[in-house]
Amino acid sequence: MNKKLFAVFLCVAVAGGGLLWKNRQTVTNPSWAQPTMGTMAHITLSGSISKKMLGTLRDAIDATLEDVNRTMSTWQADTEISQFNRFQGLENVEISPEFAEVAQAALEFSKATDGAFDPTVKPLIDYWGFGPEERTTPLEEIRQAVGWQKVHLGSATIRKDRPSLQLDFSAIAKGYGVDRVAGVIAQIRNNFLVEIGGEIVASGTNPKGLPWKVGIENPDPTAAFGESILQILELSGRAMATSGDYRNFQIRADSTRYSHIIDPKSGTPAESDIAAVSVLAKRCMDADAVATALFVMGSEKSFQWLETHPGFDAFFILHDPKTPGFASRATPGFPKE
């Protein structure tokens, strides 16, 4: 081999080796799932990312989700919310900025929805069999400690009017967790999708360079998660959260079903004409809270509420009184495929 030909071969070999090395050190469109908050988180990134950066990012996401659990979970005894719930005093309690952020949003939505959303329903959730504790106290007695007006939030403190008042952020915490994870990813890239227990944030484009597409389930309790899709929509730059009566429920002695979503005013599981409602908003925790409130309100009051709150759009799947199936209805701004 002459020197000129050898030099060309060497350059090609080095370049080829460099490309192979680069391919070994990068991942394209990584997607993974991990348990969190009593459900699963699903995360997809669009495009290529170095393995080192991906490892750093996943560590940051793990730490973020652990922090959300450590703050918000009522199923763990050592979390910030569990410690507050055990506290029997009426004095101010110091809280973390994260706790304060979620508590403020929860109380704002309680006021905005006239109590259809209420973070003080934990004793009722326990009473109806959906929480970590068993309650034998009479329902009317439990209801005396329920009411968002009995919570007082300062800049870094919180206090309760009644010793037995307890908070539950489960109707807003998953959305908050999605927002937190999305915030971590957004520091390094624009194209991603984050989903936790059906609550979603989508940003930029999918691996094909198109807007992300997500599905709304048919509210069939016998179908596996994602098995039966009723509606598909493009979702980029917004968040979506869904509340419904078809996944988490209990069966009465007479074989009728009741939902985990509690009507704070009656103290009983919400009796709604809504089978499921999906809400779009800028923040996922806002969509999460509003979806719960709309389910409690029922469809007629929900549409009245949405007319005066233009930052939200919603897609309703309604129990059809005339047939065993469902009917659907959406606000004008809810996108369709």
TrEMBL record:
The cofactors it requires, by name, are: Mg(2+); Mn(2+)
Query: From what superkingdom does this record's organism come?
Result: Bacteria
EC number assigned by the record: 2.7.1.180
Give UniProt keywords alphabetically.
Answer: FAD, Flavoprotein, Magnesium, Metal-binding, Transferase
- What is the UniProt remark on how the cofactor binds and its stoichiometry? Magnesium. Can also use manganese.
Molecular-function annotations in GO: metal ion binding; transferase activity
Catalytic activity reported: L-threonyl-[protein] + FAD = FMN-L-threonyl-[protein] + AMP + H(+)
Q: Which Gene3D superfamilies match?
A: ApbE-like domains
Query: Can the keyword Cell inner membrane be found in this entry's annotation?
Result: no
Residues binding Mg(2+), per UniProt: 171, 288, 292
Q: Which family does it belong to?
A: Belongs to the ApbE family.
The protein's name is FAD:protein FMN transferase
Q: Which organism is it from?
A: Tichowtungia aerotolerans
The organism's taxonomic lineage, starting at the top: Bacteria, Pseudomonadati, Kiritimatiellota, Tichowtungiia, Tichowtungiales
